[in-house]
Amino acid sequence: LALPDTSSGWRLYQPSIEDALQKRIRLHEALRIALDNQQFFLVYQPKIDLRSGRVIGAEALLRWVHPELGFISPVDFIPMAEASGEILRIGDWVIDRAIRQLEEWLAAHQVAADFHLAVNVSVQQLTQPDFARSLLHRLLRSRLPAGALEVEVTESGLMENVDLAREQLQLLSRHRVSVAIDDFGTGHSSLAYLKTLPVSVLKIDRAFVSSMDTDPQDQRLAETVIDMARNFDCTTVAEGVEKPEQAQMLIDMGCEVAQGYWYSPPLKVEQFIEFCAERRLEMA
Ligand code: C2E
Ligand code: MG
Ligand code: MG
Ligand code: MG
């Protein structure tokens, strides 16, 4: 770093810029070896059918706990992994881990036969020419029923490269892997594009859900997404449901599925299985 050597205030900032830079470099280095050092694991957030209250699936979310740095949020490290290309290896691991976990749960009858597990996929993964083929290959090798795996892609990621993404998504959906658009409502996608994508789920972004019960405009936005999903033959999932009032509003609007702290935060495997068992008892 070449900062001007003057008596002005510039020098004062030098240490903090270097600190921040050092920290980023350390984090990048840590991220590069995290996978090989088994520092990643998945947590699972239940997806609830709003009509029946049943757990109909889950979303797998990546967690990184570094031995010295502690918990690092995916909001911070996923963009870094995307920028460095590391996301390709990490994303492969997520898919393999999710497939194996789902096989285990189904074999032990810990989840219903029609349960599905969703994994988040970055646009960098999705635009690899062999992404869909490689995923399908792994899925076929597993003993999972068709349709047990769902892929979530953010609306903004999808719009970065619609044409490459469409090819991959078409191959996936032809083999009954369902495609969900994540964070829907924040990514400025055009309806003309949406129409050409084989999407079966729209996930209403948390931002709209969280202010739905206090902001009539966000309520109308959520309602618009649900109506639109219906017209496109898509299921709507509301993310970030934190209050019973929000859940009730969503039911009234015809939203089918919900996720959020009101039902459960993302859980480690053992707690997830407990949650499913308790819910089944409540339902019975
Ligand atoms: P996302 O896919 O939209 O996931 C939903 C996020 O909302 C998760 O944050 C989840 O823990 C959080 N959440 C769920 N319910 C509530 C709620 O009621 N209130 C609030 N305030 N938050 C709630 P998380 O786990 O920190 O993940 C953040 C983002 O990181 C994800 O957003 C996703 O875009 C990305 N991500 C996570 N795991 C993966 C992964 O395996 N691969 C890729 N490519 N991205 C991932
Ligand atoms: Mg997601
Ligand atoms: Mg989301
Ligand atoms: Mg998000």
TrEMBL record:
It comes from Geopseudomonas sagittaria. Residues 24-280 form the EAL domain. This is EAL domain, c-di-GMP-specific phosphodiesterase class I (Or its enzymatically inactive variant). One of its GO terms (molecular function) is cyclic-guanylate-specific phosphodiesterase activity. It comes from the Bacteria. The chain holds residues 301 to 584 of 584 of the full protein. Keywords: Phosphoprotein. One of its GO terms (biological process) is phosphorelay signal transduction system.
